[in-house]
Automatic annotation (TrEMBL), chain A:
Subunit description: The system is composed of three essential subunits: KdpA, KdpB and KdpC.
Chief location of this protein within or outside the cell: membrane
Pfam families associated with the record: KdpA
Subcellular location field: Cell membrane
Chain's role: Part of the high-affinity ATP-driven potassium transport (or Kdp) system, which catalyzes the hydrolysis of ATP coupled with the electrogenic transport of potassium into the cytoplasm. This subunit binds the extracellular potassium ions and delivers the ions to the membrane domain of KdpB through an intramembrane tunnel.
Transmembrane segments: 66-85, 134-155, 176-197, 252-272, 284-303, 329-352, 373-398, 418-440, 492-511, 531-552
Keywords of this entry: Cell membrane, Ion transport, Membrane, Potassium, Potassium transport, Transmembrane, Transmembrane helix, Transport
Annotated source species: Croceibacterium selenioxidans
Name this protein carries in UniProt: Potassium-transporting ATPase potassium-binding subunit
UniProt membrane topology term: Multi-pass membrane protein
Family: Belongs to the KdpA family.
InterPro entries (UniProt xref): KdpA
UniProtKB/TrEMBL annotation, chain B:
Organism in which the protein naturally occurs: Croceibacterium selenioxidans
Gene expressing this chain: kdpB
Annotated active site: D300
Domain of life: Bacteria
Pfam families recorded: E1-E2_ATPase, Hydrolase
Name of the protein described by the UniProt record: Potassium-transporting ATPase ATP-binding subunit
Localisation per UniProt entry: Cell membrane; Membrane
Amino acid sequence: MTFEGWALILIFAALTVALAKPIGLWLYALYDGRRTPLHAVLGPIERGFYTLAGIDPTTDQSWRRYAVHMLLFQVATLLFTYAILRLQAVLPLNSRDLAGQSPDLAFNTAISFTANTNWQSYSGETLSVLSQMLGLTIHNFLSAATGIAIAFALFRGFARRQASGIGNFWADLTRVTLYLLLPICLVYALFLVASGVPQTFASLVDATTLEGAKQSIVLGPVASQEAIKMLGTNGGGFFNANSAHPFENPTALTNLVQMLSIFAIGSGMTWCFGKAMGNTRQGWAILAAMMILFLAGASVTYWQEAAGNPNLHVLGLTGGNMEGKEVRFGIAASALFSVVTTAASCGAVNAMHDSFTALGGMIPLFNMQLGEVVIGGVGAGIYGFLVFAILAVFVAGLMVGRTPEYVGKKIESREVKLAVLAIAILPLSILGLTALSAVLPQGLAGPLNKGPHGFTEILYAYTSATGNNGSAFAGLTAATPFYNGLLGTAMWLGRFFMIVPILAVAGSLAAKKYTPETAGSFPTTGPLWVGLLVGIILIVGGLTFLPSLALGPIADHIAMVRGQLF
Amino acid sequence: MTKPSVFTADLILPAIGDAFKKLNPRQLVRNPVLFTTAVVATLLTVLLLIGGERLAVGFQVQLIVWLWLTVLFGTFAEALAEGRGRAQAASLRAAKSELKAKLLLGTDDLYEMVAASQLEKGEVVLVETGDLIPADGEVIEGVASVNEAAITGESAPVIREAGGDRSAVTAGTRVISDRIKVRVTQEPGQGFLDRMIALVEGAERQKTPNEIALTILLVGLTIIFLIAVSTIPGFASYAGGGVPVAILAALLITLIPTTIAALLSAIGIAGMDRLVRFNVLAKSGRAVEAAGDIGVLLLDKTGTITIGDRQASALRPLSGVDTDTLASAALLASLSDETPEGRSIVMLARQKYAMPTRELPSDAKVIPFTAQTRVSGVEVAGVVIRKGAVDSILKAEPELADTPAAAELREITDEIARSGATPLAVSRDGKLLGAIALKDVVKAGVRERFAELRRMGIRTVMITGDNPLTAAAIAAEAGVDDFLAEATPEDKLELIRKEQAGGRLVAMCGDGTNDAPALAQSDVGVAMNTGTQAAREAGNMVDLDSDPTKLIEIVGLGKQLLMTRGALTTFSVANDVAKYFAIIPAMFIALYPGLGVLNVMGLASPESAILSAIIFNALIIPALVPLALKGVTYKPMGAGPLLARNLAIYGLGGLLAPFIGIKLIDLAVSGFQLA
């Protein structure tokens, strides 16, 4: 471990916190339907969309209507992408004459991008420019905007009083895409281009390697996809090597900016929540709990990676664990990136998590198992976190001698039922599908490694899919009909079986009266509450996975210490 | 009323019997977590009998026994809580069973003796000196003094009379003088006493909204842990081994929140029971929960904030009048006044103004207070002394109305009113002498109580019929947050609606028929037992002692109930950490021996670890029964410190206690070579 390594982690954390308010202010304007400076330019375009689609953005939708419209939109865009991937061979902008994807692969890929997961069972190089841009990048925007829209709807549930509606899905979706994602990505992509990321319709470049051999490197509109891949916590790389590829992530600066852009909106959402509740301290408390969990994870991974593998030290290979890491980034930046990308449900990688030490790789896994609530995916992080907040208030809130309430809303049977539903989907999908794959021959054919490490590969895949993270532990041969099917299912479950109960919570809360805060109200700001949140997330969200972790990374680690490697 | 302690043989023995009766699946299913435990215990019992497990029989038997004990401890806790309520009800029922009624047959006082249980609503009964009132009802004729000690424990008799606000009578109370005719207002078996018995016994208990929500959470956690445990065999098979069903079952049962599930209904029954012991009858558990959430307390000034009677505090002579003259007149006018106010004037004159003690002269003629004149006084040797409200005196002596003395008197009396006291004017032989200030005496300690309530986030509003000037002064002295002066029932109702629209829950107490709408509108409406039937119907609680001060304690009891529930839930959930660390290494050590490092407690063997965890899980239930029944200690303070305190005790305690407990049990289990 080095001073520079720790400094990087702490500076990164500080920058994340610093971004919360500026981004949060912008988000709040969109949440509240306020006019932004960009309205002068983009306003006509926004109205044009509504006119074209015949939508009145001022119509307030009930939670059911909001949910149905959202789901129909997801299914429609899912089918659209499925068709593009299947028909790639006959569609234009396919200069390399690439074949279409198989049905199971296209099913998996289409769901993956719709559900903001970007799990990639395919290799990025096998897609045409059209498939990348129209089939996938479009989802990078829309799935991110959907996540933020759902979070806005939930905020309204908390903020509104005796209201029947929770906003308008189309208005939320359009505004977030138009005023937030597109403008930032435009600037961001230009920055990436300036840093050396390609943005071209040319498809190949030939290079002469050091050995004198000729290598053809795929090119394409990388920068534009890279920007939203990070900002929208999508994570699907243009190249198979993802952010470890020099064309995706050329410099130390792009590496830092990429990590920051993963956390930027998630961090801003916490501030926006506080503002929407009329008390920004509510938002800071949530961010504090998230940052505690984040820093704890980052510390463990960095410590483990820097410590390296004692079995190799004996052989004279001293130093930390550099297997599967990009030399340009080194241990600290790789460890940090892995924790950031898994904490935030992004899934972009700049190193191979499979090659991490057992415990170093367990943290990314554990981050996802917590339900992607440590900053989390754009929108998804905060709405997932609020589900835990509801549970925390319900379990401990009674201890102040009042029936539980959170930000002025009583938490009653209906909210508890829905919160439990939303949380139960994680273990059901992750543990259920892992267990299935661990006993069926099709499942057992997947892992590359033996023993607990192989088990971790399966567990990681379902965790990543269900958590809508999309990062791969690698090592698992997932491009089979069996895994494509089950992982696709996991991604759908993890996304929409969580979103629908959350919208129902929003609807139920919106209809409630507001209870003003008094000295007798359960305090949901301050260190006690932060500690309680961390505790509930670890006990309810984390402990469920302890048996699986024991048989995976923990057993792996103990074996490593005893000199047995897998 | 007797106060049974938590653990006495005559309570415990029947509770043990009831604990077994509650194993009836149809009853047990109401508690899904215990039901799950029972199903798992049954499954293991069957597996043992058919020899489906390869584990040592002795180990299996112990495991099964402890699983069944977990269920039984849960049903026992509920049975014990119900038993305590029943013991309380028994004394009430004894009184009820003997009741006989004199059912009036017609317009004459002819009656026939019938059993009270046969009385129908609307029938009229005669109750004479020495009789027990056979049913809840309303006095329609006569006036009587009634001893309500059977219900309230207060032996001083109260007056019950036809018409007005004191016409309601309760079954089981005794008429000690006079005779009254009472119209029965309750159907048989629906009377006050019946409801009270049913409530304390728990037979009529329905789950409250918060209990339902909590049960849903507990079921949800059970499902999540069921998923976590049922997927383990799949994982284990990947590692090339298996996990016996009995051990999976042990993990499941220790993880699911058996502790709080077992104690949940006991906490609710005990909370209700505490209220009854406090002589307050809640008509539903929901009302008790609402009491904890109260944001605004409407308190009647008289009796709650001030002691009921006003005390003379000063004499204010007009200019040109000697203080002694006024004191002497005031003393003479009050010697025959037996009201507390009159007595306090005599005291004041004698002590502060050193008037010689003297009897009323034998030739003195007392002018009694009448509703018409509103003036009292005395005529001694032709000299007429009057005392009364300023307006009444001026009315009695109309020629004084426009004199400068009257103007000065008004100035003085306004000043007295502003200081929170009530002025009385004194005149002698048609000449105004001055005023007596009757001060409302704020009860000792109420200021501190209200400050305490403020720290708890509860606003207090004083309700009074006084004019705004007086009310403001008393409100300031008592330290209430707000006051409603010259309050009419309509004003009260409007105030409640306004507060509720702002999202605050309101508690109040009342006794008159005109209080009924406000009682019904409030979230916690405590009707005084001395109140009218209408008031008692409208409120959701009845205070048998008719003590309006109790409102504050009722809020405390509501909070205590909720806190107990929250504390035990937090404790139960926090317990899981240690249980994981006991069972996971034991479960997987055969697959990966290295996982023994997770055995942080250093438990002796895998079997001992599992057994110790399951024993701890079972024993913690009876260990917490006293806490569940007594409730956690409640001190009024702000939510922040309260949470810090309870989180430290029950959150941190819940995290650490099982580490210690399981280790100790493990030492015993391995020491006795049980596993």
